[in-house]
Amino acid sequence: MSAPAAPPCTLVILGAEGDLSHRKLMPALFHLTHDELVSEGFTVIGVARKEQTEDEFRQSVKRSLAESKEAGPVDEAVFARFARRLTYLRGDLDDPVTYRALRQRLEERERQDPKPQGRLVYLSIPPSLYPRAVEHLAQEQVAVRVRDPRAVPWMRLVIEKPFGRSLHTARELNRLVHEHLSEHQVFRIDHYLGKETVQNVLVFRFANSIFEPVWNRQHVDHVQITAAETVGVEHRAGYYEEAGVVRDMFQNHLLQLLTLTAMEPPASFNADAVRDEKVKVLSAIRRIPRNRVEEYAVRGQYGPGIVEGKPVPGYREEQGVRPGSPTPTYAAIRFMVDNWRWHGVPFYLRSGKRLARRVSEIAIQFRRPPHLMFPQEVGELEPNLIAMRVQPDEGISLRFETKVPGIDLQIKPVDMDFSYREAFSGPQHSAYETLLVDCMTGDATLFARRDEVETAWAVVDPIIEAWESRAPTSFPNYAAGTWGPPEADALLAPGHPRWREP
Ligand code: BG6
Asked: What pTM was estimated for this model as a whole?
C-alpha cells in the first residue's frame, strides 16, 4: 500500500546552495518526486546568494544528485519532472529585499493552479543566522502566525539542529520564534527521528504485548545506546569546533533514542501525546551536578590511527581545527532516569567520530536469572539482550542461551535476528523524506517540541559547562579506528560487562 501524495505546497529552502540542501534535501525531494509522494502543485523556491540562472541552479542540483549516495541513479525523466518544480531566487539572506522578493514570488505562485495549500520555509542556513532570518521572514510576512492547526493556507517553519547551543540560547530562539508563530507551525528537525528503526522502537514496544511487561527495572539491568561513526570531522571543522560531540549528537539524537526507549506508552499516537511522554522522561533524567561530571561522563578526542584499513590524521591535524583544540569528538555518559519504571537502571550513552565501526544501536540488557541450577562447569552465562540496530543493517535481535547439541551440557548464547532488508523489499525512504512529508502534512510527532528541546539542553548543559571550564589534559586520548578512550570502561558499574562492540 503506498502512501498518498503530500498536499501541494511551496517549499522555500533558505540556503539552497548549502551542504545540507545538496546532500540531503534535494536527494530526498528527488526521491519523493520519483515515488509520486509530492503533488502536482508542489514547488521549491531555492534561495541563495550565488549569482546564477534558474537553469544553472537545476544543473547544480543535478550534479549533486549524481554524486549523492542517497539519490541512486538519476533517471532523466524523473529529473525532468523534478526540475520543473525547482525555482531559484538569488538574494542575500541578511537583506530585507530578499524576503520582499520571496514574498512576491510566493504570492505569484499562490495565484496559480493547482493552488498550494501552504508554505513551508526550511532554514538550511548556519544557526547564527536563524534569529535574523526569522525576523525578516516575519517582517515581510512570509512567515505569519496561524492559530488553527487545521487552517488552510498554512505556514510552517522547519528549523535544523543545533537548536541553540545551550538552554539559555535555545530559550531565546524559542521566544523569538514564538513572537511570530504558534507551536504547531514550528518543526524542529532531528533527522534521527525519521530513521525507520527509530520509529520502530515505538512500534516494537507498543504494538506488541510481550516486551512491555519486562521493560522496566525489575528485568532490565542496563541500557547501552551507541552512535558510532567512522568518519572524522570532514569539512565541518568550523561548526564542529564550536559544537563538539555533546551538542552535536547527545542533546538531540542520543537523548531522542533514550526517550523513545524509556517513555511510558502514550494514550494515542498523536504529536502531543507522544511528546508529552518524551518530555516526562527528559524531566526525570537526573541532573548531573557540574562538579561531579567526571563520575558520570568521559570525554575523548581522536588522534591519528587506521580507519577501514587507511591511515587517517588526528582531530587536531584536521583542516580548520586549532592545533591544541579541546573539542571532544567522543563522549560516554551515564544517565539515570529517576522514575518508578527505571529507578537504578543506568542508561549508558556514547557517541564518537573515527570509531572502529559505523553503528548506531539501542541495547537493552536484561538481568541474569536469579538462580543458576546448572553445574559450575557450564561457566558464566550471558544475560538476555535485545539489540535494536538503527544503522546500518537495520534490525532487531534477541539474544538468549541455548543448549549446544551433544551429550554433555554446554550452554551458548544465540541471536534470533530480524533484518529489515530480508523481511521487507518495498521502497525505502530516507529520514529526510519521511520528515519532509510530515512537515507537508503537518504531523509533528517526529519533531522536537519547544519544552522537549529546552529540557534536553537542561540535561546536557552542566556537562558541556564543566568540560568547557576545564581544558582536557589528555587529548588526544583515543586512536582513530578504536572504540574510544579506555577511561570510558570505568563508567560501567563494577560487574557489568564492557561496552558492546557491535
Ligand atoms: C548529524 C551530526 O546531526 O548527524 C553529524 O551533525 C553526524 O556530525 C550525523 O555525522 C550522523 O548522522 P547519520 O544519519 O549519518 O548517523
From this structure: 0.95
